[in-house]
């Protein structure tokens, strides 16, 4: 997948891919306007929403209702480095949710592609490329 990252002004940075655009901004404390989530918040949301896709699929395949089901994502950071050391994904289900499906529901969330990339992280190759700018 290829994405084009653009700088529309201020502290905003957008990612374009296919027919989609993800808008990001920094908070006012970070020099932005707070008009969109920060890139890091978007990154964090990708984990919970990815797990959510798998949970939703599990529920739909078994004809189980989604009412009252939600995922609460929490992060735990190392105070010395500020880096996240642990993610908690708590799948909340109604009291009447069938006990026999709870472990399988957890296993479905663990299939999340974002989580799998944390388990086996990719290498990064960052470089510059000079391009010719069109003069209008």
Overall outline: elongated
Query: What share of residues are in beta strands?
Result: 25-35%
Residue-averaged pLDDT, rounded?
Answer: 95
Q: Which structural class is indicated by helix and strand composition? A: alpha+beta
Query: What is the count of β-strands?
Result: 5
The CATH architecture classification of the largest domain is 2-Layer Sandwich
- At CATH level 3, the topology of the largest domain is GMP Synthetase, Chain A, domain 3
Number of helices: 3
Reading the helices and strands in chain order gives EEEHEEHH
What count of structural domains?
A: 2
Rg from Cα: 19 Å
Alpha carbon gap, first and last residue = 30 Å
- Helical residue percent? 25-40%
The main sheet orders its strands as: 1-2-3
CATH top level class name of the largest domain: Alpha Beta
